[in-house]
């Protein structure tokens, strides 16, 4: 057992075509300590979402992945698809941005929580899986879980749907949770609840977290190590406090200046260019 | 309708009449019960909303999804009609406007939407887009379309030579600037910005916020700024109205609402906003200062 | 749920009433005087008046329409005295040309049309869905492009061209099938099957092409859905991802369209039945158009409308069973 849960080295993702390699992630390096929380921050087109899909081995058709992704000492890039599948959902779980479209409208949430459990654990009866699903829903504080387990996604509110997604990952007790913009589609009060829930689950299970977001304030609250990305490149990385108190890269400094604050000075928001740029 | 008979006001200190005054706005939507036997339900999206926008100020209407803020904006722009209540704009009853007066109202109140691309016709050049409001009004374009469009683009910080391009050739932030330029074309008195910076990346968002503030300083028009992001609202608002469940739960000056919120919902909303620790920000400013001094010393 | 069904039923009745009214207006306004036709060449004005009275077409429009409607539910009698003709409910009219109630004529021919429709429907559904799935799985590859070519051909060949060429090829040139001859299923099942094979194929080809395209598009679109990505992220096997998360959402819309298409076909396949000499409702309609036998044309029109409306209703009900979003309301 190593202290590093996830070690990424030289991760490069491209969509090669006639015009060239079209790199969307460019030789990315980072480590996630066991039980740690890593934030990957960037604006649109930074390659942060592609990074998460690359770790999961779920890149879209036509994508090419090179470099090394070591999870708990196992080189994921070397695994055949079938072996990778046993990691996916079981040891590495993923939460997506839009909980409504990420849940299948045709099946009850219980069925969708159970199917992951049943496909990874052999010899599980339906009844056992159902109990696991109900328990997982209770752990994410969905009231009346024994009844709600038979409800369909559209019968839940946005925040509750994201809880269902989290319950789905939780039922497998993964060692790593990758959350790609998990609160972007949610209202601010619901976002606060979901972030609290993620923190609570990490405290309970000791799972590591990779949080992918555009929101600097969110990563500042949730993660202890931060990776800043721009146009597929790693801009800088370091402990959260260092990134927020002493950013080295001009891009990080600009980003921090551009974030409107709820309780800091009001004035011209500083941007990359002197005025508001062209 | 009892349009016109308003509550007699107490003679107070001479306060400039507001540009816009909405009183007791209600908007109900019919929720279909389905078919011939179904009983239609009524859903009250806006429930007794009263607000004022004064000349040259920015009133921010904040709330979460389903709070009724966007419906309120559309009522005020007269894109939809209210179930009841009155809206007075620049001394005229908006509901009663017809013909020429309605035309004038439509150019005095302009909207900027959230998704810049879907609110710009992809088949029209920027020049055509930004001069369209004048064309609709059959008003002459001062100085000709080309020069007029170029001047507008310049004002919103875009390259004036790009007037012949199409929306798809611009980035999201630039497209939003085109939307703003189109609103400016008819010299409006009120611009309703409905989540106008919500879809933008943070660095672009900052640029557009700065632009909106600068334009207001220059032109003196008012904003009705609809947003869910409280941190953004705090950067731009003069006054804030907080909406929840179709009602305004709290109104006040920005610093009062943010500094000492009275309503429990406002407090909950403010508490939920994720924030970068102020002590980190303070440390960063110190480090920044030190860096700058070092750099100057090296020079 | 009961309320929903009641709602749909009531809506259906209203639509059917309007269909009746509309059809009636068309035939009332546009058709030449049937009494003149019935009476023949050497006809006195008195005889025409007599026939008109018997037919009831001397009455004003609304009276006629009312008689027609009551005839549907309670039956009616044409004329009076010993020559009176009884038309039992549901009376769709009486064909004086063939001296038969339209309802009876339809009932006699319904089994043939139903056989044609059911066989063709099974064929096109199987071929369409299978072709669509194969196309979707092999998107952009040879099989996909090959199927795309086939569907294009299938959609562009007119029914009668296909029918005549098939007949010529399979019966005349190759002799694989005997010349069609009316036999009952119980008498000679093989011969019966051979008789219906060509009409089934002819009707199925165009539809199968449409269903192939539809299935392909639906499956490809569904595979883009976020919940399919979720299913893969859960580590489900590709088979499970396909079966559970791609097929069901992709095939649900097919059910809707299938119900409508099938109902439409039950009302008779005009060209196919005529070409193959099958004595179904479609052929009857074609014949009555040439003979200008109005009660029959009107009866068939109403039947087709009725089937489509009922088919629509069945599809709606089926949909509530398939799609939970329709079945259980939101409680969010």
Poorly predicted tracts of residues of chain A: 273-278
Judging from the principal axes of the Cα atoms, what is the shape of chain A? Answer: globular
Helix content of chain A: 25-40%
SSE run of chain A: EEEHEEHEHHHHHEHEHEEHH
Largest interface: A-B, 44 and 44 residues
Structural class of chain C: mainly alpha
Protein name (chain A): ABC transporter domain-containing protein
InterPro entries (chain A): AAA+_ATPase, ABC_Ni/Peptide_Import, ABC_transporter-like_ATP-bd, ABC_transporter-like_CS, Oligopep_ABC_C, P-loop_NTPase
Keywords (chain A): ATP-binding, Cell membrane, Membrane, Nucleotide-binding, Transport
Family (chain A): Belongs to the ABC transporter superfamily.
Would you kindly provide a written description of the structure presented here, covering whatever features stand out?
- The complex is a heterotrimer of chains A (278), B (299) and C (332).
- With 278 residues, chain A is α/β, with parallel strands linked by helices.
- Chain A contains 11 helices and 10 strands.
- In chain A, the strands form 2 sheets. Chain A has a 6-stranded mixed sheet, with helices on both faces. Chain A has a 4-stranded antiparallel sheet with strand order 2-1-4-5, with helices on one face.
- In chain A, strand 4 and strand 5 form a beta hairpin.
- In chain A, helix 4 runs parallel beside helix 7 and helix 5 packs across helix 7.
- The C terminus of chain A is likely disordered.
- With 299 residues, chain B is of the alpha/beta class.
- Chain B has a single domain, classed as P-loop containing nucleotide triphosphate hydrolases (Rossmann fold, 3-Layer(aba) Sandwich), CATH 3.40.50.
- Chain B contains 10 helices and 10 strands.
- Chain B has a 6-stranded mixed sheet with strand order 6-7-8-3-9-10, sandwiched between helices. A 4-stranded antiparallel sheet of chain B has the order 2-1-4-5.
- In chain B, helix 3 packs across helix 4, helix 3 runs parallel beside helix 5 and helix 5 runs parallel beside helix 6.
- Chain B is globular, with a radius of gyration of 22 Å.
- Chain B starts with 19 loop residues before the first strand and ends with a helix.
- With 332 residues, chain C is mainly alpha-helical.
- Chain C has a two-stranded antiparallel ribbon with strand order 1-2. A two-stranded antiparallel sheet of chain C has the order 3-4.
- In chain C, a hairpin with a 4-residue loop joins strand 3 and strand 4.
- Chain C is globular and about 85 Å long.
- The two termini of chain C are 19 Å apart.
- Chains A and B meet through helix 8, helix 9, helix 10 and helix 11 of A and helix 6, helix 7, helix 9 and helix 10 of B.
């Amino acid at each position: 057992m190593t202290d590093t849960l996830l070690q990424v080295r030289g991760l490069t993702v491209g969509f090669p075509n006639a015009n060239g390699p079209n790199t969307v992630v460019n030789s990315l390096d980072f480590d996630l300590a066991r039980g740690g929380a890593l934030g990957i921050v960037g604006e649109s087109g930074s390659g942060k979402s592609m990074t998460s899909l690359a770790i999961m081995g779920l890149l879209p058709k036509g994508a090419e992945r090179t470099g090394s992704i070591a999870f708990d000492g196992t080189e994921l890039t070397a695994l055949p698809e079938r072996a990778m599948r046993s990691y996916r959902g079981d040891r590495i779980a993923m939460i997506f941005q839009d909980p409504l479209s990420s849940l299948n409208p045709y099946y009850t949430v219980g069925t969708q929580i159970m199917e992951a459990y049943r496909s990874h654990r052999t010899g599980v009866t339906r009844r056992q899986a159902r109990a696991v699903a109900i328990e997982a829903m209770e752990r994410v504080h969905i009231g009346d879980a024994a009844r709600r387990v038979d409800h369909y996604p559209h019968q839940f509110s946005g925040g509750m749907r994201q809880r269902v997604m989290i319950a789905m990952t939780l039922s497998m007790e993964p060692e790593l949770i990758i959350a790609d913009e998990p609160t972007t589609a949610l209202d601010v009060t619901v976002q606060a609840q979901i972030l609290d829930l993620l923190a609570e689950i990490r405290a309970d299970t000791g799972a590591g977290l990779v949080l992918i977001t555009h929101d600097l304030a969110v990563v500042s609250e949730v993660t202890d190590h931060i990776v800043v990305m721009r146009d597929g490149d790693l801009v800088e990385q370091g402990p959260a406090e260092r990134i927020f108190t002493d950013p080295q890269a001009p891009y990080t400094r600009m980003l921090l200046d551009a974030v409107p604050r709820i309780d800091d000075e009001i004035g011209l928001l500083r941007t990359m260019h002197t005025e508001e740029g062209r | 309708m009892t349009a016109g008979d308003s509550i007699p006001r107490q003679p107070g200190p001479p306060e400039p009449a507001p540009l816009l005054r909405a009183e007791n706005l209600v908007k109900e939507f019919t929720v279909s019960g389905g078919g011939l036997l179904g009983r239609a339900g009524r859903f009250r999206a806006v429930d007794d909303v009263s607000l004022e926008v004064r000349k040259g100020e920015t009133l921010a209407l904040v709330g979460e999804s389903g709070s009724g803020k966007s419906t309120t904006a559309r009522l005020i722009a007269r894109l939809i009609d209210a179930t009841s209540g009155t809206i007075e704009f620049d001394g005229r009853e908006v509901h009663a406007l017809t013909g020429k007066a309605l035309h004038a109202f439509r150019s005095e109140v302009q909207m900027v939407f959230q998704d810049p691309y879907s609110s710009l016709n992809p088949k029209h050049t920027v020049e055509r887009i930004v001069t369209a409001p004048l064309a609709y009004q059959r008003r002459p374009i001062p100085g000709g379309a080309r020069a007029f469009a170029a001047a507008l683009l310049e004002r919103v910080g875009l390259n004036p030579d790009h007037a012949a391009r199409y929306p798809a050739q611009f980035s999201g932030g630039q497209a939003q600037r085109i939307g703003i330029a189109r609103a400016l074309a008819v010299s409006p008195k009120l611009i309703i910005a409905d989540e106008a910076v919500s879809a933008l990346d943070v660095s672009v968002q900052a640029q557009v916020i700065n632009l909106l503030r600068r334009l207001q300083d220059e032109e003196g028009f008012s904003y009705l700024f609809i947003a869910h992001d409280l941190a953004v609202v705090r950067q731009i608002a003069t006054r804030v109205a907080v909406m929840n469940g179709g009602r305004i739960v709290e109104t006040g000056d920005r610093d009062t609402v943010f500094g000492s919120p009275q309503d429990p919902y406002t407090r909950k909303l403010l508490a939920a906003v994720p924030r970068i620790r102020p002590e980190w920000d303070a440390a960063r400013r110190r480090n920044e200062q030190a860096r700058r001094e070092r750099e100057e010393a090296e020079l | 749920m009961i309320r929903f069904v009641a709602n749909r039923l009531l809506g259906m009745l209203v639509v059917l009433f309007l269909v009746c009214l509309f059809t009636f207006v068309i035939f009332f306004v546009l058709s030449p005087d049937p009494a003149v036709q019935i009476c023949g060449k050497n006809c006195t004005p008195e005889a025409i008046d007599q026939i008109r009275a018997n037919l009831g077409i001397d009455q004003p429009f609304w009276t006629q329409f009312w008689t027609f409607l009551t005839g549907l539910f309670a039956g009616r009698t044409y004329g009076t005295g010993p020559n009176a003709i009884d038309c039992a409910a549901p009376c769709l009219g009486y064909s004086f040309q063939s001296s038969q109630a339209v309802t009876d004529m339809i009932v006699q021919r319904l089994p043939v049309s139903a056989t044609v429709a059911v066989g063709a429907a099974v064929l096109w559904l199987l071929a369409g869905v299978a072709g669509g799935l194969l196309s979707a799985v092999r998107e952009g590859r040879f099989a996909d492009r090959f199927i795309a070519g086939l569907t294009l051909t299938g959609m562009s060949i007119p029914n009668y061209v296909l029918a005549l060429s098939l007949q010529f090829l399979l019966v005349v040139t190759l002799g694989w099938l005997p010349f069609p001859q009316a036999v009952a299923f119980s008498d000679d099942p093989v011969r019966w099957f051979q008789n219906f094979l060509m009409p089934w194929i002819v009707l199925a080809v165009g539809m199968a092409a449409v269903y192939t395209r539809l299935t392909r598009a639906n499956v490809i679109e569904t595979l883009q859905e976020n919940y399919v990505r979720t299913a893969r992220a859960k580590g489900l096997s590709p088979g499970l991802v396909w079966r559970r998360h791609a097929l069901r959402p992709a095939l649900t819309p097919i059910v809707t369209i299938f119900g409508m298409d099938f109902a439409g076909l039950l009302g008779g396949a005009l060209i196919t039945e005529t070409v193959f000499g099958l004595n179904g409702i479609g052929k009857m309609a074609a014949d009555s158009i040439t003979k200008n036998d109005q009660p029959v044309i009107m009866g068939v029109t109403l039947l087709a409308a009725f089937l489509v409306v009922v088919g629509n209703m069945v599809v709606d009900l089926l949909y509530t069973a398939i799609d939970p979003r329709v079945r259980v309301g939101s409680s969010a």
